[in-house]
Predict the structure.
Amino acid sequence: MKQPILIKHVLPFIAWYGLMILITIALDYFLHYFHFISVGLYLGYIGTFLIIASFTYSLRKRKHITSGSPKQYLVFHEYMAWAGSLLILVHAGIHFNAQLAWLAVLMLLINVASGLVGKFLLKTAADSLSAARQEFSITGITKEAADKELFFDAIVVDLMRKWRDIHLPISFMFGILSLLHIITVFMFKK
């Protein structure tokens, strides 16, 4: 029998997300080791710009932009948001002196995770569940027996389908916290 959805799709996602954190730590270490700490400030600006640019997908989706395919804009959104998030994480570094900034970073991490759920997990997990149900029906197992066998896979897929309801409010909260962070930096700049 095929691997459960949790092992086939969720665990690789967690490993990929963990790799993002490790890359961030490695880049932050590199900047500190070679005394390029001030570069982190500029990475925050560039990362913010990339994330803002990624919202062209939302404009295309809502038909404020009519040229280009929505799929191309979605790919652009994914790559720009990923790159921007990575740069902002390096910008944040491992500093514990600003609570507002850390709240923004926390929302960024949650937002990236929810976006990755939509990109990597939802469609493939739903397709796997559908294929498993079809495989059971071909072998002659009753629908009730198949549902019992796939119970936990169905729960995982149903939970992942709710990602859109979570992703947008998290994005909004990340935006507000980031804006507050930027405003306070300029207000209290020495």
